[in-house]
Amino acid sequence: MPTILSVSYPLACVGPDAVGGAEQVLTLLDAAIVRAGWESIVVAGQGSFTHGTLVATPMPVGPLTEAVRRAAQERHREAIVRVLREHNVDLVHMHGVDFDRYLPPAGVPVLATLHLPPSFYAPAALRPARPRTYLHCVSRSQHAAFPPDVPLLPPIENGIPAEAFGARVRKRGFALALGRICPEKGYHLALEAAHRAGLPLLLAGAVFRYAAHERYFREEITPRLDSLRRFIGPVSLHRKRRLLAAARCLLVPSLVPETSSLAAIEALASGTPVIAFPAGALADIVEHGVTGFLVNDQHEMAAAMHAAESLDPERCRAAARTRYSAERTQREYLERYERIIAGSAALSPA
C-alpha cells in the first residue's frame, strides 16, 4: 500500500479544531488515507492531532517574526528529510503557502495544493524547477486567476463532511463570523454591518501572533465590540457546529479573492445562509437569494442580515450535500495520488 507524507504550514497545527482551511483539508485527507488502508505520515506543528503518524515540529512561542518563520521552515525541512530517510514514501503532499522553502530533494514526487490566491506565493514556487513537482488549486475560480504559464493540474474542489453539520437546533438571533482574525478577512466590516442592522454578532477565531494581525485586532476589531457584538476567541469543532446551526446567518466580508470557504460551506450544511462579498469562490458557493446573499458593502450586508430569515434552511443543506461532499474530495485526491505515483501520462496542466 502507498505511503503518503503530508506536510502542513510550519506555523499552524492540524486536527479537527484547526482554524485554517489548508489545515482542515489536510486533516480530511489524512483520515481518508488511513481509511483506505494506506500509510499516512504527517509533518505538522506540535499539538496537532492526526489519524496517521504525526512527526511533530516545535511550535514557536511569542511573536511570529520573519526569523521565527525561517527557523520553523528549517525544522520542517529537517523533519521531511528524516522521514524520507527512514520510510519508503511514495508521495509528498505539501499544503503550506511557503512549501518551496522546504521542498525535499529531487526523487519522490511532490504534490503541492495551492490554498491561497496567486499573489501569496513566491514566483519561483509557481514554476518549480524540481522534477516531478505538481501543483493544483482548490476551486475553478482560483485556478482561472493564475497566470497561464503556471503549470497546474485540474483543481480539486474542497469538500466537508456535510452530515456532521446537520444538527437541528433552535435558531437564535445572532449573526456569526468565523475564521482567522486578520486584515484581509474584513471582519471589521461585519461588525459595522451588525451595528447598522441592530443585531448581535459573535466573532469566533484566532488572532495569530503576527504583528499586522495583532495590530488589526487592536485597532479595527476591539473598538467595534460591545455587549451585543462580541469576540469569543477560538472555538472547538463541537462548539463551531452548534454556533453555525444556531446562527441566523454567517457573514464572510473577505477583502481578497477567496479560493474556497470551508466556513461558508459548513454554514450551508448547517442550514444557515451565508452573506458574503463576491470575492473569488464565494460568488460560486453562495447562490444569491437562495442560499444567501452576495453584497457589495457593509450597508447591503446589514440589510441582508434581516432578509436572511426568509431563506429556506433545507435549500442551504441540499446545496452543501450535493456540491461539496467530503467523499468526492477524498476520492479525487486518492485517485490523483495513485496517478502521480504511477507516473501517469494523464498528468498534464489543465
Describe this entry's structure for a reader.
The chain is of the alpha/beta class. The protein folds into two domains: 3-159 and 325-342, Rossmann fold; 162-323, Glycogen Phosphorylase B (Rossmann fold), CATH 3.40.50.2000. It is 35% helix and 16% strand. The chain contains eleven helices and 13 strands. A seven-stranded parallel β-sheet has the order 3-2-1-4-5-6-7, with helices on both faces. Strand 9, helix 5 (211-221) and strand 10 (229-233) form a beta-alpha-beta unit. Helix 1 packs across helix 11 and helix 4 packs across helix 9 (298-307). The two termini are 28 Å apart.
Q: What count of domains describes the coordinates? A: 2
Distance between the amino and carboxyl termini: 28 Å
User: Please, what is the average pLDDT?
Assistant: 95
How many strands, which pairing sense, and closed or not: the largest β-sheet?
7 strands, parallel
- CATH architecture descriptor of the largest domain: 3-Layer(aba) Sandwich
- For this structure, what is the CATH homologous superfamily of the largest domain? Glycogen Phosphorylase B
Q: Helix count, per DSSP?
A: 11
Assign the structural class, choosing from mainly alpha, mainly beta, alpha/beta, alpha+beta, or little secondary structure.
Answer: alpha/beta
CATH topology of the largest domain: Rossmann fold
Apparent shape: globular
